[in-house]
Amino acid sequence: MPVPDGLDGMRIDSGLSRLLGLSRTVVAGLAEAGRIQVDGSVAGKSDRLLGGAWLEVELPDAEPAEPAIAGPTEVVAGLTVLHSDDDIVVVDKPVGVAAHPSPGWTGPTVTSGLAALGFRLSTSGAAERQGIVHRLDVGTTGVMVVATSEHAYTALKRAFKERTVDKRYHAVVQGHPDPSSGTIDAPIDRHPRHDYRFAVMQSGKPSVTHYDTIEAFRSASLLDVHLETGRTHQIRVHFSALRHPCVGDLTYGADPTLAKRVGLTRQWLHARTLGFAHPADGRYAEFTSPYPDDLAAALEALRDP
Hints:
Blueprint lengths: L11 H9 L3 H9 L3 E3 L2 E2 L12 E3 L22 E5 L3 E6 L16 H7 L24 E7 L2 H12 L4 E9 L6 E5 L2 E3 L7 E3 L7 E9 L3 E8 L6 H8 L14 H6 L7 E9 L6 E5 L4 H11 L2
Parallel strand pairs: 6-13
Antiparallel strand pairs: 1-2, 1-3, 4-5, 5-6, 7-12, 7-13, 8-11, 9-10, 11-12, 13-14
């Protein structure tokens, strides 16, 4: 095919990734194998494309189908598919489920659950994280998007990196934040003494959390939280630093007596909505997850005087 004028001057790996919907890593591998020619000459991954030049790409033969997801394939109880198409699958993640396999985790994962449902995810990224473009903590429920095509993986990873994805959580925190609406701008790093925790640290990465109070109870507040950045445990760390930890979050200083009273064994934190430009056509798509039973029951307990 001729090189489209819109790719004129772009690097081979970047231009063909956009043109063919492959990852830059795959295109670089094709170039290194001599499978890409421009005007009859073998081209390297960093060579520049010339609009109108004749492009020849030799794709490798399809390999026998193998499981695209590392870890066991198993049906995950409570994992609900909210939407699926050729590029993405949007799920409602239940509590006690990790996004993907990792060292030391032997429980269920989103990737294994989707494999059991017959979904083949994008092969981009590390084997154990194929298709995963963002994560939720094991103890956090709610909406997640997973890429099923290479193009979607690239587009969504870029969107999360460039902070164009609208990530909104609902959280119930102890007490009443003052002001009732505000922004927490405090860097986060791994805790100096506890590897499994994070903390506000001057040496940390920039982290910004916006919040608005939806409902106030006698001992807690229901917040709508908008993440500008996406650090590990960000919401939990930021509100703990303000002395308003998520109800039930014993790891970050929540009151165990209150947690027991409302029947919680994990933090009251839920990924409520996720909005982004769909990788296929750029149209805005938004998905919402209802509260799971344990969080809904805790809310009612807090409303009961």
